[in-house]
Amino acid sequence: MDLAFIIVDLVQRIIDEGVTHEFTTTAPWPPSMGTLNTQWAVIFPLLGLFMPFSVFWMRAHFINVPKELSEASRVDGASIWQEFRQIQLPLAVPALSALAILLFLWTWNQFLLPVVLIANPLDRTVAGALTFFQGQYSLSIPLLNAGALLIITPAIIVFLIFQRQLSAPCSRAQ
To answer: Is the pTM of this model over 0.90?
Structure first.
């Protein structure tokens, strides 16, 4: 059995177990963990939200990898880790790059979760900072646009960095 199908089988078992079992907890969260009004109050829920999507994303990639590649590496004497490092991982770079872009953008633009879980406005995410540019009776459109431009700049930089990995397989295929 090759590595791609082992990974797909493992992910499928995790998904099936997660669907069939109910998870109950008696401890209230987040006060019992001491995470309220900290960055961890935002990090833990985002991990819980992003992990299932990331698993499905990478599962979709590994399902489409031809099993002949794994078989050929086995015939050549590669171990599971060599196959993963030298064959599967380089093939997964575009999928990982797209996933990294999506997760960064979703995290960067997070607004509601920090507003609910963090009381101090200075500790919230950058997207919540735009509320500082509007008052109860006034709104400075140029200042709001300048703030939005500053907030979107890191997202554009991340996309420009990872877009080479997204377009590299297309340029190699020609």
So the answer is: no
